[in-house]
Amino acid sequence: MKKTIVLTLITSAILTGCNSEEKHQTQAAIPAEKVNTTADFTASYNSINKEQLAQHIKVLASDEFEGRAPSSKGEQLTLDYLTKQLTAIGFKPGNGDSFLQAVPMVSIEASPEMSLSIGDKEYQYGHDMVMGSSRISDFEQLKDSELVFVGYGVNAPEYNWNDYEGLDVKGKTVVMLVNDPGFATKDPAVFNGEAMTYYGRWTYKYEEASRQGAEGAIIVHETAPASYNWSVVEHSWSGPQFGFVRDDLNKGRVAVEGWVNVDVASEIFDKAGLNFEQAKTQAAKGSYHVDMGDLTASVTVNNTVKESVSYNFIATLPGRTKADEHILYSAHWDHLGKDTSLEGDQVYNGAVDNASGTGALIEVAEAFAKLPVTPERSITIMAVTAEEQGLLGSKFYAANPIIPAAKTVANINMDALGVNGRSSDVSVYGLGQSELDNFLTAAAKKQGRTIAGDPRPAAGIYYRSDHFAFANIGIPALYAKSGKTPVDEATKALRAELKETLGKCYHNLCDEYSEQWDLSGAVEDMQAFFEIGYELSNENVWPQWSKTSEFKR
């Protein structure tokens, strides 16, 4: 029997949460013996250490855990490990009497035995292109589907931009650029300038192509605007791709969606009598689309479809006086699993991404557990599934929250912590979104650090990890990590030594634990995150979104 997930729309009335009177009520006096002293806080703060973090990473990113793919042996080992660790320090099940929230999903794996035919040439899977389907079916295809270039594939009324204006793409395959027009122009008056908006995300582009009625959707990969190289596409979009089971079996999605590399794009534009670079330039000037001559695309996608259940892990340290109000720490426990078709190393260990963040959850939780007096508000630890598949675990939780959004004070998300030493600054992705920045600024100042903005605004990082799902239901969400300025020459030298390796290992087999790493910067980040949660857990403060944040409404 098919399981159906109902993604409930949560109204703004619910999201507003406590009224201003409730938010700013006067705190009752607490007996002195029920307040943690400065020494108590400091002891817990200092208990966060790199030796324990390293041990957690080594276990979670070991070959035994097989890359922690959803619905795998690696998932079960990960959930068992989290249960053991959080139970040992006194955290309670966060979902009634269970540590788990079931997330029904479907796995769709496209056979790599396919080729994409455009014009008189066959393009090969992996090297030239990666194609697949989000439809829950064994077979999908494009057959002589007309190609249309739709610029950035954006329909954004608030920016007076619609690449589909006056265009009927039913039965056709749209070809589009990655990122959004602001990246190309660097003009802050165009979208958000170099800082990516959600319109630049691949998820949005496929969704919009589907809404427009297209039969296929192809994104042109370029390293700079995508913020990752082609190998990330090759490894991340091949193998099992997870999604939700819906009533229409995802028939509302385009039949085939995928990527081509920039060399292939240049070639097919030439075949269409167009110049790729000129088309890019035109696409950045305003709403734009153009037929690609008589070119058509054909490809057959044979899928292996499996329904499964994966799990979010949720543990809570109940608050002493306000147990229904929660500080939520999150990280995704999943990675890409293993590829048995490879010779030699087959495991995508995901040490940085995101054994580091999962281990950090345990460390921060333990710091709270060591406080002699339990905080007034509850501390909740959430390790979510299927982040690598499009934030599925956090999206499911957001649609089916165990803790009402109105009772969730804040979310602090930890994803891919720094492993290359201490920084004199803290990079805040989405700086200026909420008042949580103020709490981080104060915590960082005590460490002798300053706050910096997003070092890679074009990458749209704020829309690419699990805090985004929580922000979408109104929960102020913070995502930050050690910045780009090393504290000393030794750290600068280490970063130069590790730079190439860390860059090429993102979503690759080599993302493994290394004894070369210096986790001292990650420790400072965790300590700052602990302090923010500590302050919020003993206050009546409810951090607010800034007036300019798109999440305020």
Summarize this entry quickly.
The protein has 553 residues and is of the alpha/beta class. It is built from 17 helices and 21 strands.
Q: What is the helical fraction, as a range of percent?
A: 25-40%
CATH-level-4 superfamily name of the largest domain: Zn peptidases
Mean pLDDT value: 92
* Radius of gyration based on Cα positions: 24 Å
Detail the topology: elements first, then pairings.
Layout lengths: L11 H4 L4 H4 L14 H10 L2 H11 L12 H16 L3 E2 L6 E11 L4 E4 L2 E4 L4 E4 L6 E11 L5 E2 L4 E2 L10 E5 L3 H5 L16 H10 L4 E6 L1 H4 L3 H7 L3 E4 L12 E6 H10 L4 H8 L6 E28 L4 E11 L4 E2 L8 E2 L2 H19 L7 E8 L7 H8 L8 E6 L11 E5 L6 H11 L3 E3 L14 H5 L5 E6 L6 H17 L14 H18 L16
Helix pairs in contact: 3-12, 4-12, 12-17, 14-17
